[in-house]
Design a protein that fits this description.
Elements: E1 3-5, E2 18-26, E3 48-55, E4 62-68, E5 75-80, E6 94-97, E7 99-102, E8 110-116, E9 124-131, E10 134-135, E11 139-142, E12 150-155, H1 166-183, E13 189-192, H2 203-209, E14 220-221, H3 233-237, E15 264-268, E16 271-275, H4 289-304, E17 310-317, H5 329-344, E18 349-353, E19 358-361, E20 364-365, E21 368-369, E22 380-381, E23 389-392, E24 419-420, E25 423-427, E26 430-434, E27 440-447, E28 450-457, H6 466-469, E29 485-491, E30 513-517, E31 530-532, E32 536-542, E33 546-550, E34 558-564, E35 567-569, E36 572-574, E37 579-587, E38 593-594, H7 601-604, E39 613-618, E40 625-638, E41 648-656
Protein name: Metallophosphoesterase
Pfam families: Metallophos (PF00149), Pur_ac_phosph_N (PF16656)
InterPro entries: Calcineurin-like_PHP (IPR004843), Metallo-depent_PP-like (IPR029052), PAPs-like (IPR039331), PAPs_N (IPR015914), Purple_acid_Pase-like_N (IPR008963), TAT_signal (IPR006311)
Length: about 650
């Protein structure tokens, strides 16, 4: 007896019907076999490229985006990696239909994306894109626990092509991804600070950005930078969940134009992430400006804020940064309206790019330093009500660095760029500023009762470091190694005037549903049929009992059914419809009820067991336990059937929610 189980439902959020089948031999002969038809090959072939894994709406989802040279219907095929045999996807693999459209002329070809849903936690998956006969290579990713602690990584401005040397920019970017994930292999999402490329629609730059193979295995949470916004390639390459693509969130107010835009959100474990297109900031441009973003953030937090412990905002244009963009007019305005609203809404952390330097703000509340006594570089901070931490990431690729600029006398709160009273060389709003002209990335450890934010070196002055190699930025060797810490701070949340009590509840054992042939799965031999006056032959017997076990907490319904093939002896055959049965519960348990009796087609026509019939079942809410199901068989064969030793296959199917 061989049992083959199809993939169970891929996750806890949506239930699917699950089927498992097995073949049992029935007597009166042999002839058992099975085979798969050769796959049909599509008439058109396509070159599949630019594959990238993105975040979904929650931890049970991922989005895959890619380019295709042909405008064909395409899919993502997904299966647990453990179910692949010699790299071949099993018949139980699930497929997700892709959507997409033609790319703009400068990109050529077509774009496709599909959302993978129902993922299970702590599971390795393999996937490929395309269609039957034209699949891409397979790529793998793994999910982790859907509750509890996790880490994510934040990357500032790869801006591939910015140095003028594409190969050097790619080398630095690939090295940062390699270094960061070698040090943090269990990081769960990769968050973008924007400016993936230098020139919005230059596909050679996108190819270099997509060069790290890890972008096919770790979900990328995209952000639109000012160098991405001027074309459609960003949207073609990076499809995002829950995205509002209405005109208010496009800088020119026109989603159909040759620009990218949109605001989006997702929840990952206990964190609500909201990502804004900060290129749209003034209504004079045509879009909804910052007022639209603030309304969006307010609406998302009002609807989903209670579903998460932490609120993290991500956008490109840093409003508290120390370098070339520190005194930009739009940033000064946003220091007033953004800061006030973010404090009111209880935002914990804001991640920014754009200024190609690292900074960590003091805790900011309503446009001012929340606590005048907070010291520069403090290792632990306590936001209190309304305190928000703003972090700006340096270049992750080394393609461009901006030098730190000097404060002025424009004020030490609100829109001002005045000096820090505690350190006159820094802006009033920054606890830490750093520019060493070396690549770095930000690691955020999300814990039950704290956020730990670290800026980590992913390079040194040595190559790959394009801006330094090409003499565009000086670099003074600090002696700090790759992986060393530039800055680290622990954010301790505010719990109000009372005391919060927390407890982690682990996953309860889900229990299992399964069935087996009880005992030895021998041939069900019905012996020699009895001749009834030349009119028909009859043989009787019983199937090998089926043991059903159900210990699931869900107490979901289940059913066991079976159907029989035609009986064969070489070229001789007769229909399986002549086999009937009377199911029975041999041993009670698991809510088992016997199926209805089915007569032989010889007695009154019909299809007998040539179609699948119910052997036993249980309703929703049944007791846990084990049952044994059996059935008495009744085979009546027309007298015209030739003499022979016939055999058929009974295929048993188990269904469970």
């Amino acid at each position: 007896m061989r049992t083959s189980n199809s993939a169970s439902a891929l996750g806890p959020v949506r239930r699917r019907v699950v089927a498992s089948t097995v073949a049992a031999f029935l007597g009166l002969g042999v002839a058992f076999g099975s085979g798969l038809a050769a796959p049909a090959f599509a008439a058109d072939s396509a070159t599949l490229s630019g594959i990238i894994l993105g975040v979904g709406s929650n931890e049970t989802q991922r989005i895959v985006t890619w380019y295709s040279s042909a405008d064909t219907a395409q899919q993502v095929q997904l299966a647990p990696t453990s179910s692949l045999v010699d790299g071949a996807f099993p018949a139980s693999a699930v497929t997700f239909a892709a959507s997409g459209a033609a790319n703009i002329a400068t990109s050529g070809g077509f774009n496709r994306h599909a959302t993978l849903t129902g993922l299970k936690e702590n599971t390795g998956y393999s996937y490929r894109v395309g269609f039957e006969g034209n699949w891409s290579s397979a790529y793998a990713f793994k999910t982790q626990s859907f509750e509890g602690d996790y880490d994510f990584l934040f990357y500032g401005d790869p801006q591939i092509g910015s140095s003028g040397n594409l190969a050097k920019d790619q080398a630095g970017w690939v090295d940062t991804v390699n270094v960061s994930l070698a040090a943090n292999p269990n990081a769960e999402i990769l968050v973008s600070g924007g400016d993936q490329v230098e020139t919005a629609n230059t596909e050679a730059q996108w190819d270099s950005f997509l060069a790290p193979t890890q972008l096919k295995s770790y979900p990328w949470a995209a952000t639109i930078g000012n160098h991405d916004v001027g074309g459609k390639a960003y949207e073609q390459h990076l499809y995002t969940p829950n995205t509002d693509r209405s005109g208010a969130y496009y800088s020119n107010g026109t989603p159909s134009s040759n620009t990218s835009g949109g605001d989006y959100w997702y929840i990952y474990k206990d964190t609500l992430f909201i990502d804004l297109n900060s290129n749209s900031y003034a209504t004079a441009q045509g879009g909804g400006g910052d007022a639209a973003h603030l309304a969006y953030v307010t609406d998302v937090i009002n609807q989903h804020g209670t579903e998460a412990k932490w609120k993290v905002l991500v956008y490109h244009h840093a409003i508290y940064s120390p370098a070339d963009h520190a005194k930009d007019a739009d940033n000064k305005i946003r220091r007033v309206d953004f800061s006030q609203k973010f404090s009111d809404l209880g935002v914990d952390l804001v991640l920014q790019g754009h200024d190609h330097s690292y900074s960590r703000s003091y805790l900011i509340k309503n446009g001012a330093k929340a606590d005048a006594t907070e010291q520069p570089g403090a290792a632990d901070v306590y936001p209190g009500p309304g305190g928000v931490l703003y972090v700006t990431a340096n270049s992750a690729s080394g393609s461009k660095y901006y030098d730190i600029t000097q404060p002025d006398n424009s004020g030490t709160s609100g829109a001002g760029n005045g000096a820090d009273p505690l350190d006159a060389g820094k802006y009033w709003y920054n606890s830490v500023q750093n520019q060493e002209h070396v690549r770095s990335y930000v690691k955020v450890e999300v814990r039950n009762d704290k956020l730990v934010v670290q800026d980590l070196r992913s390079g040194t002055c040595a190559a790959p470091n394009a801006a330094v190699e090409l003499a565009k930025s000086p670099c003074t060797e600090t002696g700090q190694a790759v992986g060393s810490i530039v800055d680290k701070v622990t954010v301790h949340p505010y719990h109000g005037s009372g005391q919060d009590i927390q407890v982690n509840v682990p996953n309860a054992a889900p229990g299992e549903f399964g069935w087996t042939i009880d005992g030895y799965n021998g041939l069900v031999d019905l012996g020699t049929a009895v001749d009834h006056n030349g009119d028909y032959f009859e043989a009787t017997g019983s199937i090998n009992p089926i043991a059903v076990s159900d210990s699931r907490r869900s107490l979901a319904p289940w059913s066991i059914s079976a159907g029989v093939s035609d009986f064969k002896d070489g070229a001789k055959t007769f229909s399986g419809s002549y086999l009937g049965w009377t199911p029975k519960v041999v041993t009670a348990g698991a809510g088992a009820k016997a199926g209805a009796a089915v007569g032989s087609a010889y007695d009154g026509g019909g299809q007998g067991l040539s179609v699948s019939r119910g052997l036993g079942s249980a309703d929703q809410g049944h007791a846990r336990g084990t049952a044994k199901l059996g059935a008495d068989l009744d085979l009546k064969i027309p007298g015209s059937v030739d003499k022979g030793n016939y055999r058929a296959t009974l295929t048993i199917t188990a269904l469970s929610s």
